[in-house]
Amino acid sequence: MKNSTLIPGLMLCASLCVGSPLLQAQSVIPIPLKMEQTAGTFLLKKTTPLYTNLQGEELERLKATAEPGTVKHLKNLSKAPAGCIVLEKTETGVPQSPEGYALNVSPDKVLVQSRADAGLFYGLQTVCQLGEAKPDGSSAIAATQITDEPRFQYRGFMMDVSRHFRTKEFVKKQMDAMARFKLNRLHIHLTDGAGWRIEIKKYPQLTQFAAWRPDAVWKDWWFKENGRKYCEEGTPGAYGGYYTQEDIRELLDYAADRHITIIPEIEMPAHSEEVLAAYPELSCSGEPYKNAEFCIGNEQTFEFLENVLTEVIDLFPSEYIHIGGDEANKNPWKACPKCQQRMKDEGLKDVDELQSYAIHRMEVFLNEHGRKLLGWDEIMEGGLAPNATVMSWRGEEGGLKAVRSGHRAVMTPAEFFYLDYYQDAPISQPEAIGGYVPLEKTYSYDPVKADMTPEEAALVYGVQANQWAEYIPTDEYYEYMMYPRLLAVAEVGWSQPSRKDFADFRNRALTAVEWLNAHGYHPFPLKDEVGHRPESREPIQHLALGKPVTYNAPFNESYKAAGDKSLTDGIRGDWTYSDGRWQGFISRNRLDVTIDLGEATEIGSIGADFMQAAGPEVFLPAEVIISVSDDGQNFSELKRVTHTPSREPGFAFVNHTWTGKTTARYVRYQARSGKELGGWIFTDEIVVLPPQ
Ligand code: ACM
After folding, report:
1. For residue 468, what is the domain's CATH number?
2. How many C-beta neighbours within 10 Å does residue 140 have?
3. Chain center to CA of 523
4. 10, 85, 181, 253: which has the highest count of C-beta atoms within 10 A?
């Protein structure tokens, strides 16, 4: 994929729309602010020259992504000949944003104007998307006038390279596509329990040991008995990898040429099993394979983190350094004498404040070195560090709270922007971690809320898709999960809401999928999308509809759906347990409800659906008991089913229904988890039907 962002690069446009005669202007993603098609076409060839008044580094940057020999510096651009592309850096008649541009395609010339080279680059990306390929390899560009600029400054993609390592060539290939769709931040999740991925000269064990493991597939490594161990680099069969500092510099150069800022993430204080296996003295237990969190009471922890960040800061020029901050298990700190001493010395009232203390210290360190701190929304617990920016992933709450308190936020809510979730009916897909985030859902997101003040709205820095990789072992599957949903994120981040229209976007995304396929990517075949779970589309009529339900064991408050009405409201769930329709049970490991039908009723069947999503520990029940009663006290059992829960398959639905003929007033439905796996039980409706 070398040079695949080549600019006027017919290589880019050539195979764009083979077989689709008139795509042209409709196919630009993200949709520009103003776009008007005029008469005629400009013929773009591989050798079409680009004349520009850019100079120095900016000129070199442009050359780096253009067809060799095509870029020429010209002081007086009015002298540019017909049949060329003119790229003019100018302050007049251009959008305010340095990423914005004005584009005028006429039959004899393409003129791109912007106040900065970023805008010229994005104008060229638009030109490439406007082209319609001809059989001779040239490309016809519909004469068009465009004025365009981004809605948000931060338009990001997060790549998890810890759970499964991705080569630098693969990262570059994804940056090519990011640039094409005007995404400008690559957040790279370089460290996590599954492997450390960046060379730190001061701590060689991070890459000689903590970057390698005996199993290639994360799931095998994570779940096997005695798993989650690391091994020395070079051990036969060792899986892993890391970027040398030279690799990082190469990636940074590549990113800069494409106007992408790479933001490194170094996880702390949690998700650090790999560090603590290599340097166990930094954990509360002092032993390897015991903790995932650094010991915050230990000064050596801060010495380590600051030394690591010093090398990271030396490498990465980004304004922001991401320090993770998510999902800490704070319990070990409660029992650790050093952590307790720290809390006493610093007057910290709980372990939330202890985490906040650590984050705050890292912020001071970063600020002293001219950088800013970015972290997952948990960094707000125990008090947000004064200059921090919050990345809101557990829904929007963290981000909303951050902007209300004067902090910047990047919105990455999981239910819209987690690209490791299923994008289509899970039964039709390779195993994913769970969830259901189809293209339309991602596209529907708007990070700015009606009740925000203008000041708060201005603190919404932008949006980002996150692609965790526990269940994504291969490059092909990685791209399959990434595209085309990343294109929806690009449009959410760039385009004004008034310009958004899902049906239109979907058509453009179909074209983009063709382009991606033609350029060696492996996108999800959007045209074959199955869509929502049919049962979720309309309410179901049945005898228990609206009837009161007594919970003999409680539902979980986080997955309460419609509360005590949920199992008899006629509303069925979609493909994910977190859609607010499925009800979840984990305490006492069981579902146990009694429905009062109000009077003795003739019954022909009693059934319910259950879901398995092994990643998030949702399992099919080990036992189901269906029984009925006349008085609500004495029940007679109609059906009992047993099953041995297992992590396989990763995703499944099962229906457990009794059918027959009986008369009763009360229906009881019980389902329990297996002892071995435990986990969640989820169901969406207890369906009671009359005899046929
Ligand atoms: C996260 O998904 N733990 C940020």
Report:
1. 3.20.20.80
2. 16
3. 16
4. 85
Integer Cα distance of 373 and 320 in angstroms: 6
Asked whether the predicted pLDDT for residue 13 surpasses 70, the reply is: no
Residue 326 Cβ inside 6 Å of ligand 1? The answer reads yes
Taking the centre of ligand 1 as the mean of its atom positions, its distance from the CA of residue 463, in whole angstroms, is: 15
Q: What band does 6 get if pLDDT is binned at 50, 70 and 90? A: low
Is position 576 within any domain? yes
Average pLDDT of the chain is 95
Q: Are residues 177 and 31 in the same domain?
A: no
At 135 the pLDDT is 79
**pLDDT tens digits for 295-314?**
999 999 999 999 999 999 99
Cα of 323 to ligand 1 centre, how many Å? 12
CA 551 to chain centre: 36
Atom of ligand 1 nearest to the CA of 418: 2
pTM higher than 0.90 for the full model?
yes
Write the DSSP assignment of 467-518 as a string of letters. Answer: E--TT--SHHHHHHHHTTHHHHHHHHHHS-GGG--HHHHHHHHHHHHHHHHH
Q: Which amino acid is at 502?
A: F
Same domain, 264 and 408: yes
The answer to whether residue 29 scores a pLDDT higher than 60 is: yes
Supply the range of the domain harboring residue 129.
13-148
SS3 429: coil
Q: What is the mean pLDDT of residues 594-607?
A: 98
Is 612 among the domain residues?
A: yes
Q: Quick check: is 358 in a domain?
A: no
Residue 536: which of 416, 386, 332, 684 has the closest Cα?
A: 684
Dist CA 584 CA 560 (whole Å): 6
* pLDDT in the model for residue 308: 99
Domain edge (last residue) among 115, 148, 181: 148
Q: Is the CB of 397 under 6 A from ligand 1?
A: no
DSSP state at residue 675: T
Q: Verify that 456 and 399 share a domain, yes or no.
A: yes
Q: What is the tally of structural domains in the chain?
A: 3
Six token digits for residue 251 = 């990636």
Which residues neighbour 267 within 8 Å (Cβ) at sequence distance 6 or greater?
189, 191, 192, 323, 324, 326
Run of H or E residues at 10: helix 10-13
Domain shared by 684 and 555, yes or no: yes
Domain membership of residue 356 (yes or no) is no
CB of 376 sitting under 6 A from ligand 1: yes
Q: Are residues 72 and 45 in the same domain?
A: yes
23 pLDDT higher than 80: no
CA–CA gap between residue 641 and residue 616 (Å, rounded): 24
Q: Which amino acid residue places its CA nearest to atom 2 of ligand 1?
A: 393
Query: CA Rg, the chain, in Å?
Result: 28
Alpha-carbon distances, residue 598 vs 594, 634, 664 (angstroms): 12, 16, 10
Distance 219 CA to ligand 1 centre (A): 18
Active site residues: 192, 271, 327
Q: Is the C-alpha dihedral spanning 610, 615, 616, 621 positive or negative? A: positive
